[in-house]
Amino acid sequence: MNLYEWEGKKLFTKHGIATPRGVVVRRGADFAKAYNDLGIKEVVAKAQVLSGKRGKNQGIKFCSSVEEVTRACEELFNTNFRGQYVAALLIEEKLDIAEEHYLSITYDTNKKQPVLIYSRQGGMEIEEVPEAQIEKIGLDIRNANLGVMASPDPSSPQALWQCFLAEDTRLVEINPLVKTRDGRWVAADAKVALDDDAFYRHEEWKQLEPRTMLGRLPTEREVAVRKIDEGENYYRGTAGKYIEMDGDIAILFSGGGASIANMDALIKAGLKPANYTEYSGNPPREKVYQLAKIVLSKPNLKGLWIAGGVANFTNIAETFHGIVDALDEIKPTYPIVVRRAGPYEEEGMRLMRECAERNHLDMKLYGKETSMSETAKILAKAVPVKV
């Protein structure tokens, strides 16, 4: 789960990282009162969205009066930022900046360890900083003490590391880490991503307002899918990942490794996904059934693509049984293409064939001999062409 800037800064403050004084305002709030209560003349109004590039997309406005703040807030709430919903605004003090640095800790999936990234140059042009000027240090989660690094403020990396560990995050980023002209070090921005699999350790996460990766409020289906992985059986595989989209091809992916590539293959085949979803970690039949039923409940679907790589330990028959349960109920009339392989695949394919026969489904089944991208093309040929 990605946090909004103001939520990330709240965590930073908790771990001793200085942030600007500020206040969060919502739609319909008294913007003038919020500004006056803050008691600072020079402020910045910042749109709270889940992606970056706000500065380059007019998502940050500098103000020095009640009139300017009110006008800025109204404009920001009525602006579309790359298709994202503006959940709130953060009005905070304008910093007197002397230097802008970059500091983050993220998880390196190749090295399978956290890595600290630091640059003496930060801000909007961080992508243009030469690789040679960026310091990267591999971290050991068993050691809570970072030691010495090249950062001019050793307390900031240490505090950020404590935040990364204690809050079960996948990413904590300060860009820019500002040094003010009076010598203070302040996190001018905050980007934090929580590890969804750690929700059972954080009762306070339930208080976070709903959001999606697309930066908008979740749909009813997205809320329903998220609940699949809650409760006492949360640890039994994952089936609660679902993002609703504007297309008409339902998707049930298994395993996360090839899911994004599969989305690209579907689009290249001329089809538009109705959703992004995946199940993994050998979830039980009941979980997959709930996921499939919600995925297939979207109106006006034109096809269904069930795809995944060669599983190592996921029971294909068990997960397919959950999908079959949903197909038996819904009995879709649109084309269905299945591509899967792994343990108990013969039994799983048999369950699918029998389901197709008794429900008269238009279903094609493929194993590892056919690539996933090829089955996307097969589905594209089967879906009726719009006139």
Q: How does this structure look, described?
A:
The chain is of the alpha+beta class and 387 residues long. It has three domains: 21-93, Dna Ligase, domain 1, CATH 3.30.1490.20; 97-198, D-amino Acid Aminotransferase, Chain A, domain 1 (2-Layer Sandwich); 218-382, 3-Layer(aba) Sandwich (Rossmann fold). 29% of the residues lie in helices and 26% in strands. It contains ten helices and 16 strands. The chain has helices at 5-14, 31-38, 66-77, 155-166, 220-226, 259-268, 285-295, 316-330, 345-359, 372-382; strands at residues 22-25, 43-48, 60-63, 88-93, 97-108, 113-119, 134-138, 169-180, 185-187, 191-194, 238-244, 249-254, 275-280, 303-310, 336-341, 363-366. The strands form three sheets. Strands 5, 6, 7, 8, 9 and 10 form a six-stranded antiparallel beta sheet that branches. A six-stranded mixed beta sheet has the order 11-13-12-14-15-16, sandwiched between helices. Helix 8 (316-330) links the parallel strand 14 (303-310) and strand 15. Helix 2 crosses helix 3 (66-77) and helix 7 crosses helix 8 (316-330). The radius of gyration is 24 Å and the shape is elongated. It starts with a helix and ends in a 5-residue tail after the last helix.
List strands and helices in order, with pairings.
Blueprint: H1 5-14, E1 22-25, H2 31-38, E2 43-48, E3 60-63, H3 66-77, E4 88-93, E5 97-108, E6 113-119, E7 134-138, H4 155-166, E8 169-180, E9 185-187, E10 191-194, H5 220-226, E11 238-244, E12 249-254, H6 259-268, E13 275-280, H7 285-295, E14 303-310, H8 316-330, E15 336-341, H9 345-359, E16 363-366, H10 372-382
Parallel strand pairs: 12-13, 12-14, 14-15, 15-16
Antiparallel strand pairs: 1-4, 2-3, 2-4, 5-6, 5-8, 6-7, 8-9, 8-10, 11-13
Helix pairs in contact: 2-3, 6-10, 7-8, 8-9
